[in-house]
Write a structure and sequence with these properties.
Length: 448
Amino acid sequence: MTANAFLAVVLSPDGDVLDVAYADKGLARWGVDNWVGRHWTATVSADSRSKIEALLADAAKTSPTRSRQVNHPGAPGEDLPVSYHVVSPAGAHSRIAFGTDLRPMSAMQQRLVSAQIEMEKDYRKLRDIESRYRMLFNFSVDPLLVVDSHSLKILEANQGAADLLDRPIGKLPGLSIVTIFGRDDQADALEVLKAVVARGRPSAFVAGTSGGDRRLAVRATPFRELGRTNLLLRLADDDASGAHPGAGADSYMAAAAESLPDGVVVVDAEATILEANTAFLDLIRVMALDLVEDKRLDNWLGGSGVDVQVLMANLREHGTMRRFSSVIRDEHGGRETVEVSAAKFSSRGVPLFGLAIRGVPLAEAMQAGLAGHGPTSAAQLIDLVGRVPLKNLVRDTADIIEKLCIEAALRLTDNNRASAADMLGLSRQSLYIKLRRYGISEQDETSD
């Protein structure tokens, strides 16, 4: 009897339990063996007794009966759900109730109920968040537009934007964003907005309105929404008196940096490149900004990793650095001597560093080094021309330059010999030999 059923109960015509058969030993928790001798209705919970009585009544008329679900009580919260149908064998005085275990289905139903409850909670949270967003968006004093990044159509607009553009708020959603600008500025505005989407960083520009009666300062900020990037546009009158200098200043400064012939690059505190102009890309022989963004500056700047470390350390301590000598390594293995001027600034409370990098011809670099050594050294060197063989003159010049480089490295590393040797591409032992050779005073070596 147990081969095809989870539980089989042998019943008398009156509904008394004569025998019980089962294979699952775990049913002992519900006292199944104690059912024998009791009426079947006494083995189920109170709300299931009417179903047992209906099963017994059906069994007197038909076989098999239709299934009914009942619960057998156990420990608190551990009822045993079973679906029974009763069979009355021909010629037999007893009946057999075959039961199907409904615990897996009950557990699944419970999980579904729990999931539905959690979904309702999440839905309420989302609804509350959306309500707060709507309130902040619509009551903001700044004119705001939300723009789809792919179609560049306006998704939402607040009342401030409608008033500034002098259009009904209900007619703004669905419009292409470029239609709010004058024809002469539409191409430039479209280019800036596409760049913001591609690079994922805010930008600002100034454009005239379609009516031509005013100019707008626009700041476009990308943000992620439902797995896609959209744009938040903050609009303001571009007041020539300077009432809104921020957007215009950002735009002018960005345009100036992009137009400079010297390389300009912005890095974060970890020396990771955030922005770079075309001149910097030309210096390192890279075609597109995407190839350098989010990569470390020391991939290209410095004869070794120490150069950038020293530069960043000085910027953190002093805030500015002028004429820091280094080299640029391009993507094709070339090297070029450069000078770096840099400054520390902050954007929204985050410390950033701007670097201007200028290529320095070799002759100018040598002349600067000799000049820094002192007027007498340069003058003596010139006086030797014609009196000393060129071979000896070049050797002495190399010694002077070598000494200058060692002194410069020690100054830049705050007399840290290990870092200075790394910067110069020397071993520490070779550096100590050269220090003694040129008579450079040796500081306390504990600075290593």
